[in-house]
Amino acid sequence: MLSAVPRFAKIAAIVTLATVSVLATFADADARRGGSSGFGSRGTRTFDAPAVTRTAPTQAAPIDRTMTTRPPQQQTATQPPLGAQQRPGFFGGFGGSMIGGLIAGGLLGMLIGQGFGGGFGFLGMLLQIGLIIAAVSLAMRFFANRQRTQFAAPGAATSYNTSAMSNPSASPRSSFSIPAIGGAAAAAATQKTRQANDEIGLQQADLDRFEQLLTEVQSAYGKEDYAMLRGLTTPEAMSYLAEELGEHATNGVRNSVSDVHLLQGDIAEAWREDNAEYATLAMRYSSIDAMVDRTTGKLVDGDDRNPSETVELWTFVRKPGSDWKLSAIQGTEAHQA
Predict the structure, then answer these.
(1) CATH 3.10.450.240-classified regions of the chain
(2) What's 73's DSSP letter?
(3) Class of domain 36-68+159-336
């Protein structure tokens, strides 16, 4: 009976099944992209997006890896409580079952002389395949548009830039500075804005330390210096960094990071809560960042010769009598080669 099925019909069915599977997988993978994901904790502001600044003009990626419990008032239908069963996506729930059932039923029916065309032959089979692909494409566009709407950045907020950084076309400077470039009126306006959003009154020494931490953390990460990383980060942030390093080791690669230089920085916000002080900084920095083979040192991904620019938001925390430590990192869509 199987020999009666035309060979090209079998091939067409197999190609269709593979195409739909790839499309579903791609849709899920694409939904997880959109800039570097965030990890760590920003205290009670963990699930609040930091305001955009001149350094980071696009909204930061949400923190999706954290040990912080989402406040009840922030739990919505689209964001269920931690520990609750996640609502399956279209391809993982009813939609996936429906499409899978259509395909499986069509293949089975084709093999016994029905389905994928039924009594209408090969033209009917092509029509059904086209309808299935059209349904899949429509569903992908619908859920992609819904996700973009959900995570779209709100209207640009007031920039909290307090650094005397030159614009990207000019020669970059590698430190934070207060106040911003401009005349006395501009400086006064910037200082007023800073005071409104900097609740703890960060000093130049704090900004210099943030720049040092950027370099020290990146260097320790590239060297896989666990001891140094533990001294520079909170236990939670360290756990995520160690997890990434462990995955690299399992895959036989190493993330080589060197020549880290801060190009521009803004204070997004600084505040107090409980017995701690937090500061979120938007930082644009350059570095030579590449993935290399652990054994041979051969380049696997990235560029091990030319620096690239990255824009991220780093949150630091300190308690009385202790130094600043890295608490969270959030990526943005502003990545430059």
Answers:
(1) 36-68+159-336
(2) G
(3) alpha beta
